[in-house]
C-alpha cells in the first residue's frame, strides 16, 4: 500500500457533534482520504452519512436546515420521552436502507448494552438500527432493542472510540472530541437536567481515560449546549476550522509513515 490507512473516531456530544461534518468537509477539501470510521452517538450518525457516500458540503446544507420537530416523536414516558421512529426513518432515507457492511468504507457504530454494562460494536446489519441505538441518550430516547439486547447511547461507555478504530486496522488514528460542559447553562426543563448531567459525567470519563490517538481534534464548541440545534452552521464551521489547523500535522504523519515503510 502506498499510503497509510487513516481511521477517525467521532465522539458523542449531541448537537455539538455537527462539528464532525466540518472536520470531514475539511479533509475532503484537503484531499485526505478517510479509510474507516468508528462513531459513538452523534459521531455514529455522521459516520453513517459519510459512509453512505454523501458529500459533506451537501450534508452541511442539509444539517443547516435541520429542524428537531421533524425528526423527534414524543411518547408517553416509560423508558424515554422520544420513541425514535422518526429519526430512524430519516437515517434509513439518508443511508438508502443499507447495511453497515455495504457502506463505502468500513464503519463501526458503538452502543451500550444497559443491562450488561457492555460495549456493543456494530460492523454489520442495519445502519439505521445501529445508529438509532447509538444515539439513544438515556432518559430522553427510548432504548433500542437489537438481538434481545437493550441498547443506549454509545457515549455512555466509549465517548470517543479510538480503540475501536485502531482495532479496525488504522495506521494513523484521528480522534474528534466534542466533549464539553456549558457552564452557567440555563437549566429549565427535564431535558436540560439530563443533558447537562450526561455532559458532566462523560467529560469526567474522557478526563480519566488516556486518549491514545495520533491526532486529536477538539473543536471549540463549549459555548454551545448539546441540544443547540439552532447553531448548526456555527458548529460545523468550528469543526472545519479546527480540522484545517491539524492538516499539516496529518500530512507530516503520512509522510513519516511512508518513510518508515519505504514507500514514495
From TrEMBL:
GO terms for biological process: lipid catabolic process; phosphatidylcholine metabolic process; proteolysis. The keyword Endoplasmic reticulum does not apply. GO terms for molecular function: peptidase activity; phosphatidylcholine lysophospholipase activity. The active site is at 41 (nucleophile), 153 (proton acceptor). It holds the Pfam family Patatin. InterPro entries: Acyl_Trfase/lysoPLipase, LysoPLipase_patatin_CS, NTE, PNPLA_dom. A motif (GXSXG) lies at residues 39-43. A motif (DGA/G) lies at residues 153-155. Residues 8-166 form the PNPLA domain. The keyword Hydrolase applies. It comes from the Bacteria. Keywords: Hydrolase, Lipid degradation, Lipid metabolism, Protease. Belongs to the NTE family. This is Serine protease. The lineage of its organism: Bacteria, Bacillati, Bacillota, Bacilli, Bacillales.
Amino acid at each position: 500500500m502506498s499510503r497509510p490507512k487513516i481511521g477517525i473516531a467521532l465522539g458523542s456530544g449531541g448537537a455539538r457533534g455537527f462539528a464532525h461534518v466540518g472536520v470531514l468537509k475539511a479533509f475532503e477539501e484537503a484531499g485526505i482520504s478517510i479509510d474507516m470510521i468508528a462513531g459513538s452517538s452523534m459521531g455514529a450518525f455522521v459516520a453513517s452519512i459519510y459512509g453512505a457516500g454523501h458529500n459533506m458540503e451537501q450534508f452541511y446544507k442539509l444539517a443547516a436546515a435541520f429542524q428537531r420537530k421533524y425528526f423527534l416523536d414524543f411518547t408517553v414516558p416509560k423508558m424515554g420521552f422520544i420513541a425514535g421512529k422518526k429519526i430512524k426513518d430519516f437515517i434509513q432515507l439518508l443511508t438508502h436502507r443499507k447495511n453497515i457492511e455495504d457502506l463505502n468504507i468500513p464503519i463501526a457504530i458503538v452502543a451500550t448494552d444497559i443491562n450488561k454494562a457492555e460495549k456493543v460494536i456494530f460492523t454489520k446489519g442495519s445502519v439505521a438500527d445501529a445508529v438509532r441505538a447509538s444515539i439513544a441518550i438515556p432518559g430522553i430516547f427510548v432504548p433500542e432493542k437489537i438481538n434481545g439486547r437493550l441498547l443506549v447511547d454509545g457515549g455512555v461507555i466509549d465517548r470517543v472510540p479510538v480503540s475501536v478504530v485502531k482495532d479496525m486496522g488504522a495506521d494513523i488514528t484521528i480522534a474528534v472530541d466534542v466533549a464539553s460542559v456549558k457552564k452557567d447553562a440555563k437549566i429549565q426543563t427535564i431535558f436540560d437536567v439530563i443533558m447537562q448531567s450526561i455532559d458532566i459525567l462523560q467529560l469526567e470519563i474522557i478526563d480519566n481515560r488516556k486518549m491514545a490517538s495520533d491526532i486529536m481534534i477538539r473543536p471549540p464548541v463549549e459555548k454551545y449546549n448539546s441540544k443547540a440545534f439552532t447553531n448548526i452552521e456555527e458548529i460545523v464551521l468550528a469543526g472545519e476550522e479546527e480540522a484545517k489547523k491539524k492538516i499539516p500535522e496529518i500530512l507530516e504523519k503520512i509522510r513519516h509513515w511512508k518513510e518508515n515503510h519505504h514507500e514514495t
